[in-house]
């Protein structure tokens, strides 16, 4: 496991979106502060008719310590074509890792 994401479903809107807020976001042992303005996007999508099914899609691009950026996207209904993850070094634009990941 490379990381974890937890959201509060009390923040869900009428369309099933939770945007720009999370309870915890951790990758490679780094915790990202939801109040740090340096991250770009965070969207978790649920089926509002049954939120117990869990996250249907997750899209994020967050920057940590102004040097590292974590970016990823997953759609549980199209896992072959829409699952990506990358870790960037913003100081020299190097891509450390890029591969698929999954929700579980």
Which keywords apply here?
single chain, three-stranded antiparallel sheet, globular, 104 residues, 47% strand, mainly beta, six-stranded antiparallel sheet, 0% helix
Task: Describe, in plain words, how this protein is organized in 3D.
- The protein has 104 residues and is an all-beta fold.
- The chain has one domain.
- It has no helices and 9 strands.
- It has strands spanning 3-6, 17-19, 24-27, 30-31, 41-46, 55-64, 68-75, 84-89, 94-99.
- The protein has a 6-stranded antiparallel beta sheet, with no helix packed on it. Strands 1-3-4 form a 3-stranded antiparallel beta sheet, with no helix packed on it.
- Strand 3 and strand 4 form a beta hairpin.
- The termini are close together.
- The mean pLDDT is 79.
Walk me through the topology.
Layout lengths: L2 E4 L10 E3 L4 E4 L2 E2 L9 E6 L8 E10 L3 E8 L8 E6 L4 E6 L5
Antiparallel strand pairs: 1-3, 2-5, 3-4, 5-6, 6-7, 7-8, 8-9
Give the number of DSSP strands.
9
Number of helical elements: 0
Q: Which stretches are poorly predicted, pLDDT < 50 over at least 5 residues? A: none
Instruction: Give the overall pLDDT as a whole number.
Output: 79
* DSSP strand content: over 45%
| Mass-distribution shape | globular
Helix content: under 10%
Domain unit count? 1
- From N to C, what is the helix and strand string? EEEEEEEEE
End-to-end Cα distance: 10 Å
Report the major sheet: 6 strands, antiparallel
Based on secondary structure, the structural category is mainly beta
* Spatial extent as radius of gyration: 14 Å
Neighbour order of strands in the largest sheet: 2-5-6-7-8-9
